[in-house]
Amino acid sequence: MTRVKRSVHARKKRRATLERAKGYRGEAHSNYKRAKEAVMKADSYAYRDRRNRKRDFRRLWITRINAAARQNGLTYATFMHGMAAAGIELDRKVLADIAVRDPETFRRFADAAREASAA
């Protein structure tokens, strides 16, 4: 079997890992072994937190909608039920944005939800 010389590819791989570890503390930005460990850990955190971000934003939107609904005399659950009963199909992201930026429009949604859930 022929001999494989890894020098160029190995150096390229190590240089790429050290580039990704730039700005890390201690040996993690200069020692290849420590840098590789730190980059792997950072990648796993990034993967996990891309999913957690969706969770966190949904919680934030629900909190904002709940606060705005309570200012209009409704709970979050009755507001969302009323919105579905009224046939208003807006997602939580848009509703939270309306609640923060345009309280008057949100009040009209709350009134529509109240009427639909009462009927």
Quick rundown:
This protein has helices spanning 7-20, 32-71, 76-86, 92-101, 103-118. The chain has 119 residues and is mostly helical. Helix 1 (7-20) runs parallel beside helix 2.
Computed CA radius of gyration, to the nearest angstrom? 26 Å
| Percentage of residues in strands | under 5%
Total domain units: 1
Gross CATH architecture = Orthogonal Bundle
Instruction: Round the mean pLDDT to the nearest integer and report it.
Output: 97
User: How many distinct helices?
Assistant: 5
What fold name stands as the CATH topology? c-terminal domain of poly(a) binding protein
Low-pLDDT segments, ≥5 res: none
Tell how many strands the DSSP assignment holds.
0
By CATH, the superfamily comes out as: Ribosomal protein L20, C-terminal domain
Computed structural class: mainly alpha
Top-tier CATH class = Mainly Alpha
* Helical percentage: over 70%
Overview of the molecule:
The protein is an all-alpha fold. 76% of the residues lie in helices and 0% in strands. The protein is built from 5 helices and no strands. Helix 2 crosses helix 4 and helix 3 crosses helix 5. The model has no long low-confidence stretch (mean pLDDT 97). The longest helix is centred in the middle third of the chain and has 40 residues.
